[in-house]
Design goal:
Chains A, B: Belongs to the gamma-glutamyl phosphate reductase family. The structure is a homodimer. By secondary structure, the first copy, chain A, is of the alpha/beta class. Chain A contains 14 helices and 16 strands. Chains A and B meet through strand 2, helix 10, helix 14, strand 13 and strand 16 of A and strand 2, helix 10, helix 14, strand 13 and strand 16 of B.
Chain lengths: 416, 416
């Protein structure tokens, strides 16, 4: 099927899904979860084939691990789908309601977006994950996974199709672009007549490509340098715990700490303690302001141009001493704070100034940057983490897969 | 100044505006309103120059009227600015607030988008209108008006600059692209490093150009075929009033009625009455289903291919008889219902099915499509009318010029 026909079919399916009951959508989800487990042998066999081909193609062990499915991971995916069943269906709820002076009853009612296009890379779990979240919110989806997971995805799409058929939902509610041609991605990005939103799930290159080529609104996200500023009023002992957590709990995450800024008044006290605590695990990258206090570390080097613009995704930490909060804020503005940033402080005024002046999706007072996450925020599921400002910012849950329509009811009312 | 430097300056100004008090922003607005009236002679003289040049260039009388400023219109613009002062400042309010199980206090706080780029055509009032709405919501703006209003806009920008200086706000809070080169518009559309949102205010061609060339999120809107479906259960006498209002109150508006669909059961009764009422003002375009009931009209013609996809913006009305609600909904799906659509009915079930099945920004039960408007909806101001589904749909007020950030506060909390 060519992409225009996929788009048309998705739009038709979206009309049906938009009015499907929560019960019917949940039934499809329950069958997906069951079928994932009932067909685990086939799915794992297909995945083994992907792994084998990936190994032949020389993929790194890290990447192969992201491709890998096993019984435990498959059970976790099924469990995630069952969790989506338990979440509240946002479709049909009214955001606000008022009665106008002329007697019209006016409300904004939540509706599905329509058709969502998702372009992703290696992880096969995204196929089920996104399909489930889109189904729950009444959106048709067109999926394009990485070629490294082709055989796994074909099996997962079979599971989804079985569930759609059993739940009496149109097959085109979830479609998968099978052919590997890159040209098809470009085509998908210009199907604005049929597709309402593009979600790229992958590296910065994929996001850039989508932003530059799409005529459909794109959710950009996941990138940005994360900072912690340790203010002069901070509890330094407690701050050590938070900085440790932000840097080392999961260094490969996009909300892990990249750059630490320390107020000059407390740097001499704080930094040597930090070095003592982290030096077995962390490499410090210090600019001239911080070097004298870092030189005792087992592993450190001088900061080069660009280091404070680097998302480390590893056990590396940029360190800088600043004169005051203003200088910290200025540093963050220049060095692409947009994702998650925190201040350690006991000063109410510093806290509020930090919150209002740092232009990031999530700002924290005395908490780790690692909290930026749909599950941590109680959203129940995470579609993506947006670092743009339109539509949704930060972790996106089910509601962010919806739009609204204005609903006006009256007694044969004309405008005067 | 080149556009990259304009973008940088706007972003810097946006940081200052984001933390400006409502009082300071309102002061700037009050001065704009006062200066508009104090400088009316100069502004009207510049406008006369634009009108003169426009007449020499052979612009239509309709377009010249849109360009024209006079004392009355200038007073109306000043009055609109004073109205914006009276509106609630959305910045800083919290959308929701919760305390997580781990003790973190978490809220989403409304913040400005940052920098808004606005591209518009003839009307000089847009310059003041958009600058005022952006200032109120703490957004810096980069404006690009039509070359037909160059001299008027230069005077209006002077007024804005005077007000910014007197209110001690950075000059770059509102910038205007003076040079006429079309290339500059393309450059503006790719300044994604500095600009957060593009609002095109103009015809379908401008919207399409922005959608296709912008790497910045664009608010698309204002277009779509508006329908009324007269159900078999409708009060036909009252429906006549509503259809009349929707078609004739202001035919040039984007929410004016384009196509009327009538249930077969009531068509024989309703259409001749409609013809009798509207035939002195309206030309009917009827497809084969409706012709027998329309032929008595003073002005009518057979519908051609494309007529039901035409936004008339004039005293023309498409008419079609349909078998039932399903056929009406199907017609609307095929013929680009996306803006404002209404059903006339006394049947609760038909009303709910219509509301849920018609995928438009605004759907009405027993009310005129003409209500889709920021002022009518009580938003206080209208930035644009969006027909896309991301971020905002339908009339956009001040809130839709904001984003939010997540604000988490805790007692030195690490993620477990």
């Amino acid at each position: 099927m060519d992409l225009i026909n996929m788009g048309k079919a998705a739009k038709q399916a979206a009309f049906a899904l938009a009015t499907a009951s929560t019960q019917q959508k949940n039934l499809a989800l329950a069958i997906i979860a069951d079928e994932l487990q009932a067909n685990s042998e086939q799915i794992l066999a297909a995945n083994s084939k992907d792994i084998e081909l990936g190994r032949e193609a020389g993929l790194s062990e890290a990447l192969l691990d992201r491709l890998l499915l096993n019984t435990e991971r498959l059970n976790a995916i099924a469990s995630d789908v069952r969790n989506v069943i338990s979440l509240n269906d946002p479709v049909g709820s009214e955001i606000d309601h008022k009665v106008l002076e002329n007697g019209m009853s006016l409300a904004r009612r939540r509706v599905p977006l329509g058709v969502v296009g998702v372009i992703y890379e290696a992880r096969p779990n995204v196929t089920i994950d996104i399909a489930a979240l889109c189904l729950k919110t009444g959106n048709a989806s067109i999926l394009r996974g990485g070629k490294e997971t082709f055989y796994s995805n074909m099996e997962l799409v079979n599971v989804i199709q079985t569930a759609l058929a059993k739940a009496k939902l149109p097959a085109a509610c979830v479609q998968y672009i099978e052919k590997p041609d890159r040209e098809l991605v470009s085509q998908l990005l210009t199907l604005d007549q049929y597709v309402d939103m593009i979600i790229p799930r992958g590296g910065a290159g994929l996001h850039k490509m989508c932003k530059e080529n799409s005529t459909i609104p794109v959710i950009i996200g996941g990138f940005g340098i994360s900072h912690i500023f340790v203010d002069q009023s901070a509890d330094l002992v407690k701050s050590l715990d938070v900085v440790d957590n932000a840097k080392t709990q999961r260094p490969s995450a996009c909300n892990a700490l990249d750059s630490l800024l320390v107020h000059r008044q407390v740097a001499e006290q704080f930094l040597p303690q930090l070095v003592a605590r982290l030096q077995d695990r962390v490499t410090f990258v210090a600019d001239s302001s911080a070097q004298a206090l870092i030189t005792g570390a087992k592993q450190w080097r001088e900061a080069q141009v660009g280091d404070f613009d680097t998302e480390w995704l590893s056990y590396t930490l940029g360190v800088k001493v600043v004169e005051d909060l203003d200088q910290a804020i200025e540093h963050m503005r220049v060095h692409n704070a947009s994702h998650s940033d925190a201040i350690m402080t006991n000063d109410l005024n510093s806290a509020e100034r930090f919150i209002n002046s740092v232009d990031s999706a999530a700002v924290y007072v005395n908490a780790s940057t690692r909290f930026t996450d749909g599950a941590q925020f109680g959203l129940g599921a995470e579609v993506a983490v947006s670092t743009q400002k339109l539509h949704a910012r930060g972790p996106m849950g089910l509601e962010e897969l919806t739009s609204y329509k204005w609903v006006g009811k009256a007694d044969y009312l004309s405008r005067s």
